[in-house]
């Protein structure tokens, strides 16, 4: 299984802090946001490689960080998607397809967004996917209707099979929200590769999950603990204060 880190965005909501620096490499204490995530994923036996997709502006910074850190057992490959501005960005789904094509990826994939602090191990998610034998998404209970209206929402059966998924529904059909962490099995990669040409949205990673739910069997793993989503300056400074000690 390859660990694919989607990190080619420009984090415009963080202003000057990320104008010339990638959000995943911002410090939380002595570590970085991405470093904390890789510390966990690197220990998963099934993972053979970390692939970090960056834009052209930030790729050299990721490469320098990789050389300076170098503490992980699994190899790290930095993929430069060639874009230099937020206006010309490929979008998360097209970035994934770009990396799959460039590196001829033909393995199970763990696909993760690089701007979250997690309070559980991805090993649990990998084990769940192995048990179900299908591509999988994560989910968590979200009581706030307002927050559900800003994310992906899934309906599940009693075995956590995904019955349907909606992006940013005005009237959510459940309280199961979908964070940006996915497992796509090798047997479904052909669907992934042809998703955009068949109408899948390009920008948010949830667009691909929504597309896949409609074209193959998917299960959803209820997160065993929480996460902290770093989406703004306020949430970044809150993360530093809470978790950077």
Can you describe what's shown?
The mean pLDDT is 95. This protein starts with a strand and ends with a helix. The longest helix has 11 residues, at 59-69. The strands form three sheets. Strands 1, 4, 5, 6, 8, 9, 10, 11, 12 and 13 form a ten-stranded mixed sheet that branches. The protein is α/β, with parallel strands linked by helices and 245 residues long. 30% of the residues lie in helices and 25% in strands. It is built from eight helices and 14 strands.
In short:
The chain has eight helices and 14 strands.
Q: Mean pLDDT, as a whole number?
A: 95
Query: How far is the N terminus from the C terminus?
Result: 33 Å
Name the structural class.
alpha/beta
By DSSP (H or I, 4+ residues per run), the number of helices equals: 8
Shape field: globular
| Helix-strand pattern | EEEHEHEHEEHEHEEEEHHEEH
Which regions contain 5 or more consecutive residues with pLDDT less than 50?
none
How many DSSP E strands? 14
Largest sheet: 10 strands, mixed
User: Strand-residue fraction?
Assistant: 15-25%
Based on CA atoms alone, the radius of gyration comes out at 17 Å
Give the proportion of residues in helices: 25-40%
Q: What are the salient characteristics of this protein?
A:
about 240 residues, two-stranded antiparallel sheet, about 25% strand
């Amino acid at each position: 299984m390859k660990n694919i880190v989607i990190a080619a965005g420009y984090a415009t909501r963080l202003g000057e802090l990320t104008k010339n620096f990638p959000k995943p490499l911002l410090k939380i204490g002595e570590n970085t946001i991405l470093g904390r995530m890789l510390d966990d994923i690197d220990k998963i036996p099934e993972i053979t490689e970390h692939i970090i997709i960056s834009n052209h502006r930030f790729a050299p910074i990721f490469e320098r960080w990789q050389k300076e850190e170098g503490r992980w057992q699994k190899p790290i490959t930095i993929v430069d998607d060639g874009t230099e501005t937020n206006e010309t960005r490929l979008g998360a789904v097209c970035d994934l397809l770009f990396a799959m094509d460039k590196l001829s990826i033909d393995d199970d994939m763990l696909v993760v967004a690089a701007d979250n602090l997690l309070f559980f191990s991805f090993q649990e998610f990998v084990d769940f996917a192995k048990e179900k034998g299908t591509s999988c998404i994560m989910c968590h209970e979200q009581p706030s209707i307002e927050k559900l209206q800003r994310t992906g929402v899934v309906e599940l059966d009693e075995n956590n099979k995904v019955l349907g998924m909606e992006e940013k529904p005005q009237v959510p059909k459940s309280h199961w929200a979908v964070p940006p962490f996915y497992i796509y099995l090798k047997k479904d990669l052909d669907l992934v590769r042809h998703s955009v040409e068949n109408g899948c949205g390009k920008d948010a990673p949830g667009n691909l999950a929504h597309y896949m739910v409609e074209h193959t069997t998917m299960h959803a793993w209820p997160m065993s603990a929480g996460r902290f989503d770093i989406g703004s300056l306020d949430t970044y400074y809150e993360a530093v204060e809470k978790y950077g000690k």
